[in-house]
Design a protein that fits this description.
- 39% of the residues lie in helices and 16% in strands.
- It contains 14 helices and 15 strands.
- The strands form four sheets. Strands 2-8-7-6-5-3-4 form a seven-stranded mixed sheet, sandwiched between helices. The protein has a four-stranded antiparallel sheet with strand order 9-10-15-12. A two-stranded parallel sheet has the order 1-11.
- Helix 4 (106-117) links the parallel strand 3 and strand 4.
- Helix 2 (45-63) packs parallel to helix 9.
- The longest helix is centred in the last third of the chain and has 20 residues, at 263-282.
- The relative contact order is 0.17.
- Bound molecules: pyridoxal-5'-phosphate.
- Pyridoxal-5'-phosphate is lined by residues 75-77, 80, 105, 107, 152, 156, 181, 183-184, 204, 206, 215.
- The site of pyridoxal-5'-phosphate has 14 residues, from helix 3.
């Protein structure tokens, strides 16, 4: 019988983050003071416009770009759809070819599948056992028809960081625009667009201590990109829909807070403490999924050999973490990311993702360790 402590522990920050108290406080101020339509030129609209533009500046400051290069969206999925479909519809060439990877989030994979139905050719680059693409594979895949390369910055499941600078450099040498889905990396590792060398970059607010329903897309100045949502000329004609001063202010503040990455040292230390303790408990019956070093500092994805992640977690209802597999009636299906990394179905079935965040405490990590070691007593 488990005697583990019963306190609820949240270690699923890659799924979503709580709203930061600083962000919440900014939202309260905006709620009271800027209800107007940012497009209205009268006294009620101008404060709302000022809020939206100041938020745009904050997002731009985090990415090291101009505010005019930021378009507010509803989140990561919309930003990704905007780039993929926008480039496809802008170019309108026969045999349009898009290169991406096998480990992207469905918010990239599914729009690519959709574009395939419209005639696009899609190449999904393979990854190695740590989840990284080989830039040589990228070079080999480029054709005269390639209109876009989209490679995620950090993987949501295993945290592996891709060699974005190198890949973006190759894209530039071939005159091909380069997009990175940075939904998971913004606020965890540096994401300045000129250092990365990218032309488009996706931000998702709710992975960054802002609420759900807000995100942004960086579009390098001078690059033409068809709108995804047509309507009135909001966002300089790039994304129709009345801007929410409330949500943009939230994202702006979240980006302001995310400029200070010093807290990631503490998070990495806690994450590594969890890994060391699990390794001590499970010996060689636990393996790490993802790159040992080139990985988000908050993410630990492990496989408990001969166990099923969801069965294990069902016994720890107070621990909020994710598995790397889905249970169907007669079988366990491991995630496409683990499959692409060559993880076997048996090993993948035991995958569990722990992702830490700003509010994770040492005590919570100790509770997680205690709960798991009690449960796994005798497993080794
Ligand atoms: C890497 C990545 N891209 C895109 C998304 C989608 O973002 P949103 O939930 O804001 O649409 C997610 C969300 O899990 C993600 O992890």
């Amino acid at each position: 019988m488990s005697t583990a402590r019963q306190q609820q522990t949240y270690l699923d920050y890659n799924a979503t983050t709580p709203v930061d108290p600083g962000v919440e406080s900014v939202m309260r101020q905006v709620m009271g003071n800027a209800f107007g339509n940012p497009s209205s030129s009268h006294w009620a609209g101008t404060p709302a416009r000022a809020v939206v533009e100041s938020a745009r500046q904050q997002v731009a400051d985090l990415l090291g770009c101009k505010p005019g290069e930021i378009v507010f969206t509803s989140g990561g999925s919309e930003s990704n759809n905007h780039v993929l479909k926008g480039v496809f519809f802008t170019r309108q060439v026969p045999n349009a070819h898009i290169i991406t990877t096998q480990v992207e989030h469905p918010a990239i994979i599914e729009p690519c599948r959709f574009l395939e139905t419209l005639g696009a050719k899609i190449t999904c680059l393979p990854v190695d056992a740590t989840g990284r693409v080989d830039p040589d594979d990228l070079i080999q895949s480029i054709t005269p028809d390639t209109i876009l390369i989209s490679i995620m910055h950090a993987n949501n499941e295993v945290g592996t960081l891709q060699p974005i600078e190198e890949c973006a450099q190759m894209a530039r040498e071939h005159g091909i625009p380069f997009h990175t889905d940075a939904a998971q990396s913004v606020g965890k590792v540096p994401t300045r667009v000129d250092e990365l060398g990218v032309d488009f970059l996706t931000i998702a607010g709710h992975k960054l201590y802002a609420p759900k329903g807000i995100g942004a897309l960086y579009i390098r100045e001078g690059i033409e990109l068809e709108s995804l949502i047509h309507g009135a000329g909001h966002e300089l004609g790039r994304r129709a829909g009345t801007e929410s001063a409330l949500l943009t202010a939230a994202l702006g503040e979240a980006c302001e807070l995310a400029r200070d990455l010093s807290g990631m040292v503490r998070i990495r230390t806690l994450r590594d403490r969890l890994w060391t303790a699990l390794k001590e408990c499970c010996g060689d019956r636990i393996v790490l999924n993802g790159h040992p070093e080139e990985r988000l500092p908050n993410t630990l994805n492990v496989s408990f050999l001969d166990l099923q992640g969801n069965e294990l977690l069902a016994k720890l209802p107070n621990l909020a973490v994710s598995t790397g597999s889905a249970c169907h009636e007669d079988r366990v299906e491991i995630s496409p990311v683990l499959q692409a990394m060559g993880v076997s179905p048996e090993v993948g079935a035991g995958a569990v993702r722990f992702s830490l965040g700003r509010t994770t405490t040492a005590e919570e990590i100790d509770i997680a360790i205690e709960s798991l070691t009690v449960l796994l007593a005798g497993y080794r």
